[in-house]
UniProtKB/TrEMBL annotation, chain A:
GO terms, molecular function: rRNA (guanine) methyltransferase activity
Protein's name according to its UniProt entry: Williams-Beuren syndrome critical region protein 22
Coiled coil regions in record: none
Species name: Mycena belliarum
GO biological process, one term: rRNA (guanine-N7)-methylation
UniProt-listed InterPro entries: Bud23-like, Bud23_C, Methyltransf_11, SAM-dependent_MTases_sf
From TrEMBL, chain B:
Biological-process GO terms, alphabetical: rRNA (guanine-N7)-methylation; tRNA methylation
SUPFAM superfamilies: Trm112p-like
Source organism of the structure: Mycena belliarum
Subunit annotation: Interacts with TRM9.
One Pfam family, short name: Trm112p
Protein family membership: Belongs to the TRM112 family.
Phylogenetic placement of the source organism: Eukaryota, Fungi, Dikarya, Basidiomycota, Agaricomycotina
Name listed for the protein in its UniProt record: Trm112p-domain-containing protein
Signal peptide segment: none
Any GO MF annotation of the entry: protein heterodimerization activity
Length: 283, 123
């Protein structure tokens, strides 16, 4: 798996072309949408109150669009100007900020009813300069402490991210705990290499009693019709009886012979009733 | 797309700038009005979070004086509609937001405020 966060910092990696490519890719859209719905499910907001959410690393607004659809009012922050430009073109409803989350937020305490973040945290794990404020632990600490204060008590923040090692998970969760968050990691489909998804579920407050961490999804990953690939082609290959059609049957032989004759090849056997007929079993 | 709803939550986050860093003052603004869906339930839930003095101050800076000085006791539909207009339909497209304490300028371009800090300003 190639890791874009190892190639360049986000505001450079997601330049104009990459931002457009990322947003147009339907597979990307599908994955982002699935993860946003799952993150909202984990956020577990009260159903009949329209909430005010923070979308951390909103990018071109793929997740924001779903927040719009679900009737949430939201604010998005991202560091890549090109991505935000695409978001403006797509006319998402939320307010957008150009902000480096590693520098912390300036929101007033208790501003948001929840926060989601899809595929972002891994970008905080690389140091871009040698300045002490750009070391990953410092940036993570600043991010989590300012986020903790800007969330309402009680509320939740859900981060989907792609850690590349257990050490990274350890680092992120320990800093989040130091910042005052409760909660932990929820892993969906832990046994699948492709469908495995990590969600960091963080709680603000909780009123003494520990909030129960939700179960990760397990078992067979759901493949609905829109997702399964090559389904049609396999269908076509089967004939009505359910048997696969033979590859080198009579039709194929006749077609080949016709082709050879057209090309002027000599000694092509003539067609007869024995052409392509099955031989009797010898034994 | 800076609306007053987010402006009302936004304080300066420069290193060491912790007191009197809210609300940010507008300067040289260009305002655009865009209609949006009226959602009274959301507004009722959001009112406790609003810093009323900051909201009316900011609205006056943008040339809207429809809000009363004090938050009224009775939340009738007319009031909620005015509040909805001020909070969610006034978009600041261009301009500068200035921190009253450290005078840091946050430039707004294309409706997106630039909240990036220089290295020495990071807390």
């Amino acid at each position: 798996m190639s890791r874009p966060e190892l190639i360049a910092p986000p505001e450079i990696y997601y330049g104009d072309t990459e931002a457009k490519k990322y947003t147009k890719n339907t597979r990307n859209q599908q994955i982002q949408a699935d993860m946003t719905y799952r993150a909202l499910e984990l956020l577990n907001l009260p159903p009949d109150e329209p909430a005010f959410l923070l979308d951390i690393g909103c990018g071109s607004g793929l997740s924001g669009e779903i927040l719009d659809e679900e009737g949430y009012i939201w604010t998005g922050v991202d560091i890549a100007p090109s991505m935000l430009e695409v978001a403006l073109e797509r006319e998402v409803e939320g307010d957008l900020f150009l902000q480096d989350i590693g520098q912390g937020f300036g929101f007033r305490p208790g501003s948001f009813d929840g926060a989601i973040s899809i595929s972002v945290l891994q970008w905080l794990l690389n140091a871009e300069t040698s300045h002490p404020t750009s070391s990953p632990p410092h940036r993570l600490a600043r991010f989590f402490t300012t986020l903790h204060s800007s969330l309402r008590n009680p509320s939740r923040a859900v981060f989907q991210f792609y850690p590349s090692s257990d050490d990274q998970i350890q680092l992120i969760t320990s800093i989040a705990q130091k910042a005052g968050f409760g909660g932990g990691l929820v892993v969906d489909y832990p046994n699948s290499k492709k469908a495995k998804k990590m969600f960091l579920c963080l709680y603000v407050g909780g009123g003494g009693g520990a909030q129960q961490l939700p179960e990760g999804l397990d078992g067979e990953e759901v493949e609905d019709g829109s997702k399964a690939r090559f389904e049609r082609r396999r269908e076509r290959e089967k004939n009505k009886t359910g048997k696969r059609k033979g590859v080198k049957d009579k039709d194929w032989i006749l077609k080949k012979k016709e082709l050879y004759r057209k090309r002027g090849k000599e000694s092509v056997p003539r067609d007869s009733k024995f052409t392509g007929r099955k031989r009797r079993p010898v034994f | 797309m800076v609306r007053l709803i987010t402006h009302n939550l936004l304080a300066c986050h420069v290193k060491g700038c912790t007191a009197n860093n809210f609300p940010l003052e507008f300067k040289d603004v260009q305002v655009v009005l865009r209609e949006s869906e009226f959602n009274p339930d959301f507004l009722r839930g959001f009112i406790p979070k609003i810093d009323w003095a900051a909201l009316t101050g900011a609205a006056r800076q943008l040339g809207d004086t429809s809000l009363p000085d004090q938050l009224p006791e009775m939340l009738d539909d007319d009031f909620l509609k005015t509040l909805h207009h001020v909070l969610l339909e006034i978009h600041v497209e261009e301009g500068i937001m200035i921190c009253p304490n450290c005078k840091h300028n946050y430039h707004i371009a294309n409706g997106i405020p630039n909240m990036l800090l220089a290295e020495h300003e990071i807390g």
